[in-house]
């Protein structure tokens, strides 16, 4: 029971699991007009342990400042890494998959090349990626710098780091956000004129 709102253990478990899978870190009571934030420690007895672990991990991840947070560049890992020192870190070993990567370039370790040499040598693949991102209108998360692709649904996007933003204009998502992007208006008008001709 959450204040005056009672829910069965099964429904709360499914609800919290669903919110965690959407990268929500502050899970609110499922009652529509309620704004009480639920805490993992109070639901341990009714939630599966893996849901509680994932929830606490999300809350911990969100509490880390974006500039200190990075992710392992290997697609089969993507583990969260935190730079806790003041030093600039280049070569790093992922504590999850134990592979080396460059923390500055955010790519697998590039051997005896400096970051500048590596970026100059590999300029074309980056250029191709950024060209594709521009063509597909992918948005870049301002919190963790990862690119996000939206396949369908509304413009409200939650990045894997938990940051919520508008997919159209890139601004922080607030309840009632109305995107005022001219490009969207132009696309709608263009589609309308194409349809009516």
TrEMBL record:
<comment type="pathway">
    <text>Protein modification; protein ubiquitination.</text>
</comment>
<dbReference type="GO" id="GO:0061630">
    <property type="term" value="F:ubiquitin protein ligase activity"/>
</dbReference>
<dbReference type="InterPro" id="IPR044066">
    <property type="entry name" value="TRIAD_supradom"/>
</dbReference>
<dbReference type="InterPro" id="IPR013083">
    <property type="entry name" value="Znf_RING/FYVE/PHD"/>
</dbReference>
<keyword id="KW-0479">Metal-binding</keyword>
<dbReference type="Pfam" id="PF01485">
    <property type="entry name" value="IBR"/>
</dbReference>
<dbReference type="GO" id="GO:0008270">
    <property type="term" value="F:zinc ion binding"/>
</dbReference>
<keyword id="KW-0833">Ubl conjugation pathway</keyword>
<dbReference type="InterPro" id="IPR002867">
    <property type="entry name" value="IBR_dom"/>
</dbReference>
<dbReference type="GO" id="GO:0016567">
    <property type="term" value="P:protein ubiquitination"/>
</dbReference>
<keyword id="KW-0808">Transferase</keyword>
<protein>
    <recommendedName>
        <fullName>RBR-type E3 ubiquitin transferase</fullName>
        <ecNumber>2.3.2.31</ecNumber>
    </recommendedName>
</protein>
<keyword id="KW-0863">Zinc-finger</keyword>
<feature type="domain" description="RING-type">
    <location>
        <begin position="1"/>
        <end position="197"/>
    </location>
</feature>
<keyword id="KW-0677">Repeat</keyword>
<keyword id="KW-0862">Zinc</keyword>
<dbReference type="InterPro" id="IPR031127">
    <property type="entry name" value="E3_UB_ligase_RBR"/>
</dbReference>
């Amino acid at each position: 029971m959450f204040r005056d709102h009672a829910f069965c253990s099964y429904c709360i478990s499914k609800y919290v699991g669903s919110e965690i899978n959407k990268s929500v870190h502050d899970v609110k009571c499922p009652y529509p007009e309620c704004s009480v934030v639920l805490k993992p420690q109070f639901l341990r007895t009714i939630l599966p342990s893996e849901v509680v672990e994932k929830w606490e991990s999300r809350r911990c991840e969100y509490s880390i400042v974006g500039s200190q947070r990075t992710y392992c560049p290997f697609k089969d890992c993507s583990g969260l890494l935190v730079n806790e020192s003041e030093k600039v870190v280049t070569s790093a070993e992922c504590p999850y998959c134990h592979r080396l990567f460059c923390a500055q370039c955010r790519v697998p370790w590039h051997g005896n090349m400096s970051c500048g040499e590596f970026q100059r040598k590999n300029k074309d693949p980056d250029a191709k990626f950024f060209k594709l991102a521009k063509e597909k209108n992918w948005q870049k998360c301002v919190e963790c710098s990862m690119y996000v692709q939206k396949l369908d649904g509304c413009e409200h996007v939650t990045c894997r780091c938990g940051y919520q933003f508008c997919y159209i204009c890139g601004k922080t998502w607030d309840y009632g956000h109305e995107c005022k992007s001219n490009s969207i208006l132009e696309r709608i008008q263009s589609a309308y004129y194409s349809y009516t001709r």
